[in-house]
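Design job #97: recover the sequence.
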């Protein structure tokens, strides 16, 4: 696959056999000791073959995620992280729709080296959506890279940012889902199923809470401030939409009432022999 010079014309594939709806090629890049294999091993294997290591220094795995009711199959390639990365990225970046840059939150050197990886990625796969992943969150007591520092770096380079833990199975699938969403959105595929979007658990919870309370009593709920802020925004947006609907309904009802009254008076005048010209 690495030696294939044919560039895929369309970065998203639709499978008529319905084993999956879309296929995306994803690259894992980062230093050799940041735990990329840990991330791969924590994913469900979505292929008939086991993950394998090729002679070129890459490991490959496929997994399938559910994204808004659609099955997205990810073909994930892990580069070795060695100096020969430049050669590998030239071969394996062909047809890549997403890239995950991995660093170790307990190793500042792995974070400082991201600029080198990002430069290579931009040279060989320009414009491809990227997600920054800080691995080994379960070792946060040894942290050398602050979460805020990583968030600022990701924001400057237009990347999503996650801290994950393969040991606790925390945020791994979420990071891949976000990358898949970015890749499909970039290529205009998201609009195909947007009308059939499955509500997230967060949105369902917000809807349930706002149905039983109002925006003024949200502050009294025993919830974290960030959750309260989200609930207030959700409640205000929902109430504004509801008010618009109610105002439109009232306006329509008023117009209908006026038309009904006018029709009634016209009939009365005709019955009394008084025709209004």
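Job complete. Output follows.
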């Amino acid at each position: 696959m690495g030696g294939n010079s044919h560039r895929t014309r369309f970065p998203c594939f639709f499978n008529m056999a319905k084993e999956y709806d879309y296929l995306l090629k994803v690259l894992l890049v980062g230093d050799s000791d940041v735990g990329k294999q840990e991330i791969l091993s924590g994913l469900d294997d979505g292929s008939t073959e086991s993950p394998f290591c090729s002679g070129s220094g890459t490991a490959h795995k496929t997994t399938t995620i559910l994204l808004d009711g659609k099955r997205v199959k990810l073909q994930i390639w892990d580069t070795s992280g060695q100096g020969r990365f430049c050669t590998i990225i030239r071969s394996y970046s062909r047809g890549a729709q997403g890239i995950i840059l991995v660093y170790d939150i307990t190793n500042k050197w792995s974070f400082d080296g991201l600029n080198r990886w990002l430069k290579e990625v931009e040279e060989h796969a320009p414009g491809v959506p990227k997600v920054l992943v800080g691995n080994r969150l379960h070792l946060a007591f040894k942290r050398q890279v602050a979460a805020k520092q990583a968030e600022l770096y990701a924001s400057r380079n237009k990347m999503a940012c996650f801290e994950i833990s393969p040991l606790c199975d925390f945020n791994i699938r979420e990071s891949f889902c976000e990358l898949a969403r970015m890749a499909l959105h970039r290529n205009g595929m998201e609009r195909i199923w947007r009308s059939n979007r499955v509500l997230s658990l967060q949105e369902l919870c917000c809807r349930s809470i706002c149905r039983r309370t109002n925006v003024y009593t949200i502050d009294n709920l025993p919830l974290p401030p960030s959750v309260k802020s989200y609930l207030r925004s959700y409640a205000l947006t929902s109430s504004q939409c509801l008010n618009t609907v109610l105002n439109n309904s009232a306006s329509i009802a008023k117009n209908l009432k006026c038309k009904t009254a006018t029709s009634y008076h016209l009939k009365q005048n005709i019955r009394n022999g008084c025709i209004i010209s």
